[in-house]
Amino acid sequence: MDNTVIDASAHKTRSRFWILAMLFIISTVNYADRSTLSIAGPHVARDLELDPLQMGYVFSAFGWDYTLAQLPGGCLLDKFGSKKVYGCAILIWSVFTFFQGFVHFFANASMMLSILRFMVGFAEAPVMPANSRIVSAWFTVLERGTASAIFNISQYAALVVFNPLLGWITQEVSWEYVFIVMGVVGIVLSAVWVKTMYSPLSHPRVSQSELAYLRAGGALVEMDAAAGRKEDRTPQLGYIKQLLSSRMLLGIYLANYCVNAITWFFLYWFPIYLVKWRGMSILEAGFLAALPAICGCICGVLCGVFSDYLLNRGYSLSVARKRRSSSGCCYVPAWLSVTIPPPMWWWWRQ
Fold it and tell me: Among candidates 267, 285, 268, which has minimal Cα distance to 276?
């Protein structure tokens, strides 16, 4: 980005904020889909007669495929563009989530549930890379920290909004409907996505002044323009090698790995811990599990705003973004983990 002063009054439309709202909603549903099993888990294990080892396989099925599909998912995004890949991903993961509500009809329910969770992980892999890609296209460098924080807090918003709801469905209706409801919600959202999502250059309501504002601020508005062209269909393996050998990116990978260990605990195991170890009902666990997430939502946005504030005050991009990460306020729920004693499987067996 050059040193041109951006006139904030020059852009008349605000289509990018509607795009960001859509990313937040989709990502919230995405994380809620991941946490369905953590809410329904105790009832699933009881009704399907699954022991802790079998439940461990079911839980890990998502994580393995989600990890392995990250690079292919990113390649698909670069090849076909964010709208097509993301839209297909929403539909696919929602269909597989929906069918998890019918696993009790199969002779080997644990195997079928593992397969379905495996496919959900495969379909959800492009989500976060796509979010970052879309934000880079729709937001200037000076706005990107706040925009990224908003879609990132969806992981906490999912716990705040859906955990109590899914807990109520599990307790008052049946655990099968947790998956059925979330599957239907996702299928509907996939249709909404196709109708509302556009790149900056193709959006019907983007004014030329907003487009000029985005370009001047360093937004990558042409990012999806070349998607699907023949010359872009060959994977650039050299780029992957550069990404894996960059010291800066290796630091980001390591930090994200550590953060995910905490985030996934609250996403998957915290409700089960509350039920098994603390003797709460699944409805009580759903409400209590939302409390750390509320802190994460508030502080996550504040971190993004603070990062953009530093950038606007003249600090370098490196200082502004690193200060945001080192503050740790985006991950306030982390402190709660030190109060939780024994290993996961010990909780389950009690």
Answer: 285
Q: Confirm if 128 and 72 have CB atoms less than 8 A apart.
A: no
Tens digit of pLDDT for each residue in 293-341?
677 667 666 776 776 677 677 666 666 555 555 444 444 433 333 333 3
Instruction: Kindly report the length of the chain.
Output: 350
Give 8's pLDDT tier (boundaries 50, 70, 90). very low
Distance CA 181, CA 100 (A): 11
Question: 53 lies in a domain?
Answer: yes
Does residue 339 lie within any of the structural domains? no
**Residue 198: what residue type?**
Y
Query: What's 29's domain CATH number?
Result: 1.20.1250.20
In this structure, which amino acid lies at residue 272?
Answer: I
* 28 vs 26: CA distance, rounded Å: 5
Residue 104 lies inside a defined structural domain of this protein: yes
Which domain does 22 fall in, by range?
Answer: 14-220+232-253
pLDDT exceeds cutoff 70 at 342:
no
Q: 67: buried, middle or exposed (CB in 10 Å: 19+, 13-18, 0-12)?
A: exposed
pTM of the model: 0.72
Residue 118 included in any domain: yes
C-alpha span between 33 and 229 (Å, rounded): 33
Tokens representing 219 are 């937004």
Interatomic CA distance for residues 281 and 90, integer angstroms: 31
- Whether residue 86 contacts residue 193, with contact meaning beta carbons closer than 8 Å, is answered with yes
For residue 1, give both structure tokens: 């980005």
Q: In the numeric block, which tokens belong to residue 263?
A: 């985030």
State percent of the chain over pLDDT 70: 73
In degrees and rounded to multiples of 5, residue 273 shows phi and psi of -60, -45
Domain count of the chain? 1
Round to whole Å and give the CA distance between 299 and 169.
Answer: 29
Per-residue pLDDT at 297 = 65
**Two tokens at 277?**
């170890």
Which residues touch 84 (CB under 8 Å, ≥6 apart)? 227
**What backbone torsions phi and psi does residue 80 show, to the nearest 5 degrees?**
-110, -10
Residue identified by tokens 């852009």 is 11
Amino acid at 102: F
